[in-house]
Amino acid sequence: MTVNNIIELRGVEKRYGTFLAASGINLDLKEGEFFSLLGPSGCGKTTVLRMIAGFQEPTKGTVLIDGQDMEGVPANNRPTNMVFQSYAIFPHLNVGNNVAYGLRGKAPKAEIEQRVAEALEMVELGGLQDRGASELSGGQRQRVALARALIMRPKVLLLDEPLSALDKKLREQMQFEMRNLQQSLGITFVMVTHDQYEAMTMSDRIGVMFNGRLKQVDTPTTLYARPCDQQVASFIGEMNILPSKLLGETGNMLSIDAAAFGRIEIERNPNVATSSKDMNIGIRPEQLEIAAEKPEDYPSTVQGTVSNVAFYGENIHYHIQVAGAEKPISVSVPNYFHTVDFKRGDAVWLGLQGASVIDLGTDIE
Amino acid sequence: MKRPSTLTAYAFLYLVFLYLPVLFLPLFSFNSGTIVAFPIKGWTLDWYRKLGEQDTLIQALWNSLGVGTVVALLSTAMGLFAARAFVRYRFRGQRAAEGLVMLPLVIPGIIVASSMLVLFLFLSLKPSLLTVVLGHTFLALPFSVSILKSAFDDFDGSLEEASYDLGVGVFETFRRVTLPVVSPGIVASMLVTFTVSFDEFVLAFFLSGNQPTLPVYIWSQIRFPAKLPNVLALGSILLLTSVLLLVLAEYFRRRSSASEVQ
Question: Does A84 contact B at CB distance below 8 Å?
Fold first, then answer.
């Protein structure tokens, strides 16, 4: 079964004067997927979202929604609805009238009332129709904004940093709720966020943006395991990046000299290009073994000194200074083992498997 | 902590100098003698009673109320669009445009009045209430623009976008979202611009022809000593009304700022 593309961006570019907010954006979004645009602030992700919504026209390129070219179609005629970062709850209307806003005059009164009740039920605000806009908490405002957009039965729901205004606990709870909502409704959600954890926990696929360009579009697991370059690698989770030398290659495997870690065999990353002997490798902090004695069964080991310890509760982070490495190596250990408990200044061994090393290719300037 | 006493004394004298003369106005309006001087002869409400019997005064009052109402509507309507543009958009010549709108605040009234008279005569517009309305609208515009600009400053632009996004067009969005949300600012602007017009003398004096507004009428009566207490009574009523209107306007202006904060 093939799934239709609900949104297609073809060579989309947005220019403000001399500033390129977004350029060369090509993107296909499938029906029913939860897609996130992830990137640091100012990377152009909100611009892309606003071009889909119709608040901004691309300078170049085409936006197709459900196969229709959206050029010249204003926001009020597009089959998309948006949850704004500020939620944009109409302050002069109560909850019921906020949610009913887009349906007024377009459906019989009784039907509107029923759909408002259903929409509020869906976001767990059942019966709060008469509540004033100023009496709502942050989380409730977000739910009203969701209900107000979803009642329009959009083909695509756009979310602009929907959780950034909430505190941490509520944010985590809403991540799951929004994901469940999206799954049960089966409509496409496109979310803009700068929070990599938010993007990873909620999305089917993530598009990572830097400086107006879409760097990589992949599933969260692929992004984490096979980032397309150093920038993406260090934006998604933590990453130790080590300059290395390419010694040789056989099929899918690369033989490299990983500086302090010595000679090691790693798998080629199809998302990057290795164009010379100089290359970089990435090692996730949780992929390293740390031990007081030289660990066995590891093809590569190195000795170092603990330079910093940070306790996070669920895990412990160590910074290990290793001879031959510029920056200390980050190592993360789950707390439940509790077999490791090193202090600053302790001498330790690090163990590394070739399978947990990520090929980051050669820097292309 | 006590403030330095010289500063307190200065502040006290400043307020006395500023407001004591104003307080004499209502005080002498209750004086039964016709000469405005101490000692006060006796207390009376006669001057207030007599106000209602003077037809020319009543006519002048209606003139002022009419002019004030039209000026409030015109300048607030124009100010609404100008303020929204100034706050919402960035455009070439914006600062110059804002400066030009505020200019009437600093041009001497007598200059504006005489040049407007010349202009209207050139356009063969006879001095009348219509020319007063035009002059006062010009004068009231900076007030309505600055009040409404602060109303739009507190207005989250994504509210309008949310409305478009929900399938509602530009004009309906203006009616259903923009107007209601800035309505306290609109009420404040109408009250202030009404007061500006109602109290204005110089322009009205030049432009009213034989249809005097209330301040012009008062000026014409001051020449007759016997009428002075009467004028004081009228002035006291105007003073009280103006203060009440401005307090009300300030209340609405603050409400427009508060409604968005939450």
Answer: yes
